[in-house]
Structures are given as C-alpha cells and as structure tokens.
Amino acid sequence: MKQLLATTFFVAASASLVPALAADGTCGRVTIANMNWQSAELIAWVDKAILENGYGCSVDLVPGDTQPTLTSMAEKGEPDIAPEAWINAMREPLDKAVAEGKLVYAVEELGEGGVEGWWVPDYFAAAHPDIKTIDDALKHPELFPDPEDPSKGAVHNCPSGWNCQITTGNFFKAYDAESRGFNLLDTGSAAGLDGSIAKAFERQQPWLGYYWAPTAILGKYHLVRLDFDVPYDEAEWNACTSVADCAAPKKNAWAKSEVFTVVTTRFAEQAGPAYDYIKARSFPTNEPVNEMLAWMTDNQATGEEGARYFLKEKADIWTKWVPAEVAEKVKAAL
Questions:
Q1: CATH superfamily of 29-113+258-333
Q2: N or C: which end of the chain has fewer CB within 10 A?
Q3: What is the pLDDT of residues 210-224, one digit of tens each?
Q4: How far is CA 178 from CA 83, 87, 93, 151, 286, in A?
C-alpha cells in the first residue's frame, strides 16, 4: 500500500517575497529543474528539502527536460540548477557554455553514469561464473531458451521505437548471435521488457537481454551486466552501431552516459555554502538510486514522497554531503 507521507516538511515560501541569490553569498531564491523522469524528480526534491531546511534557501521547482532546460540555463540563466543532466547528447553546446562562463559542471551526480548493455540475472551469473562477456553467453543458446522456440536461444530486445532498439539489433548482428543459435526477441514495450525480467526472477529462470541503469527494475531485480569484449569505439558507434539497418556492424561497447549536476555560474559564485552542498551531492554507484526508484515504484510515490523517505532512511548517504549542523536542521524538519 502506498505510504502516506506528510508534505509539511517542504517549506512553501513565496518566490515574490524572497530575493534571488544574494551578492553576499547568502542563499535567497533558487530555481531547480524538476526533470520529467523518476530519478531526476527524486533528486530535485532532495535538493529542495536540504537547501530549504538546511541552508535557508527558498526553492522553486520548475518543469524541465534535458535540452530545453540546459538551453534556457545557458541563454537566460534560469533555472539555477539542473540536478540530473544527461550530457552526452549536448556535450558540445554545454562545453561551449562552460567555456564562456555561463554554466558550471558542479558534480558528477551519478559516478557510474547511465549504464546500458546486455545483462543476466545475478543468480544465473553466480551459477555460471564462466559466463562474463557477451561472447561467453552467446556460446550457450541452450541456457537461454526462446519461449516460442526452445531450440533457439533468446536475446530480449530494447522496447520498440527506442534508439536502443537500433543499437541492440546492431550488437546482435555484430556478435553473430543469429548464426550462433539465437533469436532477437521483440518485447514490444518497456512494460513487456520489465515483465520478462520479473517472470524470469519469479521462476528463477535464465534471462539475457538489453537493459539500462539507474532504474527501478535493477533496484528490485539484481542483474549483472556482461562485458563487451572490446572497448568503446566512438567512430564505429556514430557510423554504424547507432545507425538503423547498418549492413556490417562491428563489435562495440556502450559508452558511459555521463550524468552531471549543471548549475549557472551565478549560482556557483553567489550561493556560498549551498553550492558546497551541490558539489558534494553525488552517488558513487547506481545501487542506492536503483533501490530508491524501486521503492517509489512499489509505493506509487511522488518525487516529494521519495525524497522524504530517502532523507529518513538513508541518512548514512546524505549526511556525508553536508556539515553536521546542516544535517541536524534537516533531520529536525522530518
């Protein structure tokens, strides 16, 4: 059952009564992009809670998405903070904005970054320690039977219409999976892909296919990513791996998707100790984020509810980001 969480924890100050960031380094009004995916929503509300209750800021969350938010920050100086910016697709304009003194890469929010690849269940990996790479797995179609054709192995594809469907298909060709006895199984949708994983875990059956992190699924079901056998080749990726219907893809690896907190230079220069918190707020691994997303999904929780749960139950993580006196103020507000 969804847990009912009080919302009075988050201070609702009127932006019109609170000045913008003050020149003397005190924290005034701060705007944070509330991005439209689960992990970004969670961290936006965590930032709001800590900045308001620990540093006395007045925080407004504003709707956001990667490209429009980062473009607005560079061109207009608003919002002040993009807590979870997946920057690979915008690296060139972002680097330019940083070089021009408009934006700052404050911290690598996800130390592992966004992680994509082919995965197997942890119980399968433990039972088959010799299977560590994609090539290792493709030597054994009998271990991953296709439910519709048990004489073949199955690789579960990325959801239809997503870019990863193209890259997974090209990986399937590059690793000669078909000639090695495998079918590429169309899961249809994200729900279909998630359902196939849940079914495998419920029955403790083998499973092989595409997935990514951080996600709620990896918080609930522990998957192990297979090594790629080769390093990431950017030229090959751009020329073929990510291109639909590429005739002769070569083996490749997924690049790490870098995930940073990006702030305006004005915020970095004027927010004082509040910026020190942002610079410290990072997850070295995706595991705690996966766990939080699983909790939010299971409880149908909002970002606000997820943030309150995180601050109550994961103090061992977030108290390392702030001085002791700030941590006590935040705890007192719970």
A1: Periplasmic binding protein-like II (3.40.190.10)
A2: N
A3: 999 999 999 999 999
A4: 42, 34, 40, 12, 32
